[in-house]
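=== RUN LOG ===
request id: a7f3
mode: sequence -> structure
chains: 1
length: 271
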Amino acid sequence: MEISDTVSNLYFVLEYTGVLLAATVGGTVAKRMNFDIVGFAFIAYISSLAGGLIRDAILNDGPAAALTNPGYLITATLGAAIAYTVTLRGKLWENFRFYADIITIGVWAVAGTLKGLVAELSWVPCLLLAVITATGGTMMRDIALRRVPSLFTAQKMTVFPAIISSVIMLVMNHFDLVREGMLAAAIAAPIFAIAVYYGGDRFSFLQTKHIERPLEQKIGDALGTHTDEAEPRDNGEDVTRALENSSDEELLRALRILLQNEVRERTESIT
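=== RESULT ===
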């Protein structure tokens, strides 16, 4: 497959957008966990570049794009600098993380699919490259932070939108509408993710059930402290402060709620 200059330019715009947003999210996660400058830079870079590095390594088509094109490292550094200088907390952080994540899924799914098409691969490998590119950075970040990768617990918010985006791209390419397909696919993924987020519970096949939640999230629920399901450990400090400031009576009540919720969840998982 040969791509025109217009498609090539659009490709880089989309991929740089993903790199910038992912680096900012990763840097903010590191900042909230009080990492030093080395840890901060590592998390920001791995969040923004790991997916593309894994994809390019699989394709085995020379050095990875992130190593040959300085624009990727410059963009990732800019995103890390934004995270370092701008403090995002509370609702502002939750909204930014959510929308930044779902936007990157779409743009990177397009990038992965286009890479597969350029390598003249069939549809199935193109879908695989789309998923790897879209989720690789987040997965490697979670592994580095010793978390269960969200890839395994939030598939409907990550993998499914990437697949849908890739399918749209492949279908449009089949009709020689590459540029239009790139734009449509990049927009479709976040729309689907938002639809699942706000309306998925209405459909049984879209519901997420029986997922073991982190302990700090369970304790936070029992104490009435808000915890972010997508980034549960980022709120560990909030739960710790709530425990320190709670009276003995409040702790006993929270313990009762925690045990009740645990029994209920395990009972539901059996049935």
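=== NOTES ===
The chain has twelve helices and no strands.
Residues 5-206 form one domain.
=== END ===
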